[in-house]
Design a protein that fits this description.
Keywords: FAD, Flavoprotein, Oxidoreductase
Radius of gyration: 21 Å
Protein name: Acyl-CoA dehydrogenase
CATH superfamily of the largest domain: Butyryl-CoA Dehydrogenase, subunit A, domain 3
CATH class of the largest domain: Mainly Alpha
InterPro entries: AcylCo_DH-like_C, AcylCo_DH/oxidase_C, AcylCoA_DH/ox_N_sf, AcylCoA_DH/oxidase_NM_dom_sf
GO molecular function, one term: flavin adenine dinucleotide binding
Organism: Mycobacterium nebraskense
Shape: globular
CATH architecture of the largest domain: Up-down Bundle
Strand order of the largest sheet: 3-5-6-9
Number of helices: 10
């Protein structure tokens, strides 16, 4: 598999500085809505539509840069609908031949009754890109949030996860192919894998800082074999999740999100990240002890986030089943190529 291209170091530093500066100004992590100073700052810097086509007002960057932006936000504890707006909602509009202006957006796929649950950031969006299935085809339209019935909800870390109800009768929409809807599902799943991995890496860094700076019985915690085992398991699981996610991301980009093994790779990334979260969260809180459970310590920002995100855009069981189905249906001798290509 090809090596993942590196993101320009100056761009990555700028992204990190923007979020870190906002965190310092607010003295902690926060949920950011479309009316915040940070939202406007990101728009001015061209980071809100980072992957959008230049001719449509975007910055023309790619998913590697977008992944770096997502990770920078996670590291600073900033909750903001970057992926939902740029990588999912605005991308789908452009792919369907529709224009996307500067309004804050999210996206949802509603059922036959016009209802979608656990929609990220709907209650804070200006517009919602709605996808539905009718007459054996999918349709998409861009709707002002006030035209929908939105019942607010939240996930484990307080991010909006809302119920959206639309009155579909009389809606025309723009027809889109099932392939785009499939890409939306896989891109959504991969977004959460990227965010989970960023949280796991941050947890690992906190563990390392803690065991090297704290002493017990006259020596650093890092000198105790039991603590070493806990931290090494955190590092191993985080690395496995990161490797699986980077493999899926590279396959998606190089295959233009339609490769024959892409679904398996995204599912493997989600499965690895989800199961890694269980061990990483448990071990990290064992390493930190009581201090890791306090509101003042940053550990909970990442452990609760990883636990919340691993079950969004498909549960762990759902993605585990996709992995198992792909393995079972691989042709004779095909399983090895499935996991190595």
């Amino acid at each position: 598999m090809s090596t993942k291209p590196s993101v320009d170091e100056a761009l990555a530093d700028m992204m990190g500085a923007v979020f870190a500066g906002h965190r310092e100004k607010l003295a902690g992590g926060t949920i950011v809505d479309r009316g915040s100073d940070l939202w406007h700052q990101l728009a001015e810097l061209g980071l809100l539509r980072l992957t959008g086509a230049v001719e449509h007002g975007g910055s023309g960057a790619g998913w590697y840069e977008a992944a770096e932006l997502l990770k920078a936000a996670v590291r600073s504890g900033i909750r903001i609908p970057l992926a939902e707006h740029d990588l999912l909602a605005c991308w789908l509009l452009e792919a369907g031949g529709l224009a996307a202006d500067g309004a804050a957006r999210t996206v949802c796929l509603v059922d036959k009754h016009g209802v979608a649950t656990h929609v990220p950031w709907a209650s804070m969006a200006d517009r919602v890109v709605v996808v539905w299935h009718v007459d054996r085809q999918y349709r998409v339209t861009d709707v002002a949030a006030e035209m929908l019935t939105i019942t607010p909800g939240a996930n484990l870390i307080g991010e909006p996860r809302d119920t959206v109800a639309a009155e579909l009768s009389g809606w025309q929409g723009t027809p889109i192919g099932a392939g785009l809807v499939s890409q939306l599902r896989l891109k959504s799943g991969l977004v959460r894998a990227i965010q989970v991995c960023a949280a796991l890496d941050s947890i690992l860094q906190l563990c390392i800082e803690h065991v090297t700076s704290r002493t017990q019985f006259g020596r650093p915690l890092s000198k105790f074999q039991g603590v070493q085992n806990l931290v090494s398991d955190v590092a191993a699981e985080a690395a496995l999740a990161r490797a699986a996610t980077e493999a899926a991301l590279t396959a998606g980009i190089t295959g233009e999100w339609s490769g024959p093994t892409l679904e398996f790779l995204v599912a493997a990334a989600r499965s690895c990240a989800g199961h890694a979260t269980s061990l990483v969260v448990r071990n990290a809180h064992q390493v930190h002890g009581a201090i890791g459970t306090t509101r003042e310590h940053r550990l909970h920002e990442f452990t609760r986030a990883a636990l919340a995100w691993r079950s969004e855009f498909g549960s762990m069981r759902y993605w585990d089943d996709v992995v198992a189905d792909a393995a079972m249906h691989a042709s004779v001798g095909g399983l090895w190529s499935l996991i190595t290509e």
